[in-house]
Write a structure and sequence with these properties.
The structure holds two protein chains of two kinds. By secondary structure, chain A is an all-alpha fold. Chain A is built from eleven helices and no strands. Chain A has a single domain, classed as MetI-like fold, CATH 1.10.3720.10. Chain A starts with a helix and ends with a helix. The chains are: A mainly alpha, B alpha+beta.
């Protein structure tokens, strides 16, 4: 069992959520509430990481984040950060490939709140933040919860993009999914077995829990 | 705190009209669905911003395109009871009514919310329930309490009777009557039920296709609708075709020829001429519509004698509870049906096929041009 890889995966999933959750809440709610020309394109861009082969996404990330790219150079010179083959680079890539996993459920959750309720809140004198806190979030919460769980589990298991952008540097970019692959390559099937089972149980448990919680929350309404 | 409203909008949907509503007055916006009643209510609440107009409550200007003022709903002190109540499903009745009271400390907030819920007669147990565990009528009372908790300067109700059964309606009428007595603020309600509007409202504003067609006390609109469309919208059944002949020998009165509906072949010389009030609005020879309120017709059991009395046969008699709806086929104008409501002992004497005399109070005939507002 590669404990280092497991801890790294957990850290990556946590860091991804820390960046992506505020962004996803804002973007999902905005897409749910606003109509504008070109909305279809924005929604397509949000879903793109879901339908693109991970190697294609990984390739473009590698090219656009690498030291030769303007972004990579700027990060290296200004922030002293390497965006490829580093943990920071993995977080950036992970945030991008998880966008659909968080934005879509959040958007659906906000879309399901009847317009009349937010209007009733406004007529009752509630400002934007009070409406958000007392009306929208309590109603959207099951959707947000499942978005969080999906993103977390998906980050734990992502392979293609992580390998392309991060490689397999122990303690830096070798996540548990990469470690499983390495163990299989080295014919260490016993270790691969244990880690694969752990990931399976973790994923199934998390998704089951989120469904259970959503159903409970939905029933309370 | 008189409410003054002026709205003018062409797009996205037409909405135009002006009206006012005094303190303690109940104004009903009436019209068919799609007439713009709810749109008008949303303009008053600040949920939509029309292209041009003015909304003023007392001294407070809520909306004025001329001076660029638009207050959002949060700054309007308006109580709005939504058609579907729009109660927060995750909050109890008490928490729903607490929403407009967030500026108060929690103990004061709860005390006031309970007072409002007591006032709409919701029991302590019901106050702690969520909307899903309350009946439709109870939900509506929570919505009314929430609107009142805002300490509104203007109360708005969107189709308050549409989803409430007959028993709860009586309670709602009582609640509205109490409100008017205690609050002394303008109350505007939207309804498509003319009967209810006429019963409750001091003023009607008749709307159609986004435009205010006419406004005034219900009785005045029923007596003298501005045009045929208004007559239809307020449910006047006795609307007929005619031709304005011109002034009569009697000062202030004119001659109206009663015409059969289009498609009925009648000799024009044999159609009756009525002497009715002349408001000098109509040119001689013009085709007109004219209406007759149901209470302008009485039944006599003798042959017709003189002006305003017409021989007829009862073509329909429908008993409805304590009244009977009657349709009479007139001898003088083939194809024309006169409708009236009978109550009291007279009901027993009419049956289909009976010969009667309809006595029309010609002073109550109201003549309108065929076109124009």
């Amino acid at each position: 069992m590669d404990w280092q890889a497991l801890i790294l995966s957990l850290q990556l999933a946590g860091a991804t959520l820390a960046v992506l959750l505020p962004l996803g809440l804002w973007l999902g709610r905005w897409l749910a509430r606003t109509r504008f020309a070109g909305k279809a394109l924005v929604e397509a861009l949000v879903v793109l990481p879901l339908v693109l082969p991970p190697t294609v996404l990984g390739y473009y990330l590698l090219v656009s984040l690498g030291g030769a790219s303007p972004l990579g150079r700027w990060a290296a010179e200004t922030l002293d950060l390497r965006l490829t083959f580093s943990f920071t680079g993995l977080v950036v890539a992970s945030v991008i490939f998880n966008v659909p996993f968080i934005v879509q459920p959040v958007q659906r959750a906000f879309e399901a709140i009847p317009r009349g309720l937010t209007e009733a809140a406004a007529v009752s004198g509630l400002g934007i933040w009070q409406t958000w806190r007392r009306v929208e979030m309590p109603l959207a919460w099951p959707g947000v919860l499942s978005a969080v769980v999906l993103t977390f589990v998906h980050t734990m298991g992502e392979f293609g993009v992580v390998l392309m952008v991060g490689g397999s540097i122990p303690g830096e970019t070798r996540t548990i999914a990469i470690s499983i692959y390495d163990r299989v390559q080295a014919f260490d099937l016993a270790a691969a077995d244990r880690m694969a089972l752990l990931l399976l149980v973790l994923s199934l448990g998390a998704v089951t829990m989120s469904f259970f919680a959503s159903a409970r929350l939905a029933a309370r309404r | 705190m008189t409410l003054h409203v002026e709205v003018e909008q062409v797009a996205p949907t037409p909405l135009a009209g002006a009206f006012r509503c005094e303190d303690g007055e109940l104004l009903a916006l009436v019209g068919p669905s799609g007439a713009g009643k709810t749109s008008m209510l949303r303009v008053l609440a600040g949920l939509t911003r029309p292209q041009r107009g003015r909304v003023v409550v007392g001294e407070a200007v809520w909306f004025d395109t001329a001076s660029g003022v638009f207050l959002p709903p949060q700054r309007r002190r308006v109580g709005l009871v939504f058609q579907d109540y729009a109660l927060m499903p995750h909050l109890s009745a008490l928490e729903n009514v607490s929403l407009p009271l967030l500026h108060l400390a929690p103990p004061a907030r709860e005390r006031q919310a309970r007072e409002w819920l007591d006032r709409v007669r919701l029991s302590a147990a019901q106050q702690n329930r969520r909307p899903a565990d309350l009946s439709g009528g109870e939900q509506q009372r929570v919505a009314v309490a929430r609107a009142l908790a805002r300490a509104p300067r203007l109360m708005l109700l969107d189709e308050p009777f549409s989803a409430v059964d007959q028993m709860n309606r009586q309670g709602l009428y009582q609640l509205l009557a109490d409100l008017r007595r205690d609050m002394a603020i303008p109350i505007v309600l939207v309804t498509h039920d003319l009967h209810e509007a006429a019963m409750l409202a001091d003023r009607l504003v008749v709307m159609d296709a986004g435009h205010v067609l006419q406004q005034g006390p219900p009785a005045a609109i029923h007596r003298a609708p501005r045009n045929a469309r208004v007559a239809d919208l307020v449910g006047i059944q006795n609307r007929f075709q005619g031709r304005w002949i011109g002034p009569s020998a009697r000062e202030g009165w004119g001659l109206l020829q009663w015409c059969a509906d289009a498609g009925t072949a009648v000799d024009p010389d044999r159609l009756p001429l009525l002497t009715v009030r002349d408001k000098r609005r109509i040119d001689a020879g013009q085709a007109v519509h004219w209406v007759l309120a149901g209470d302008a017709i009485t039944l006599l059991e003798r042959p017709p004698q003189g002006a305003g009395e017409f021989g007829a046969v009862v073509s329909e008699a429908r008993p409805l509870g304590e009244i009977t709806l009657l349709a009479l086929a007139l001898d003088a104008v083939p194809g024309v049906t006169l409708r009236l409501t009978l109550s009291g002992p007279q009901r027993r004497q009419v049956e289909v096929g009976a010969r009667v005399t309809a006595c029309v109070d010609l002073g109550l005939v109201h003549v309108m041009p065929v076109r124009g507002r």
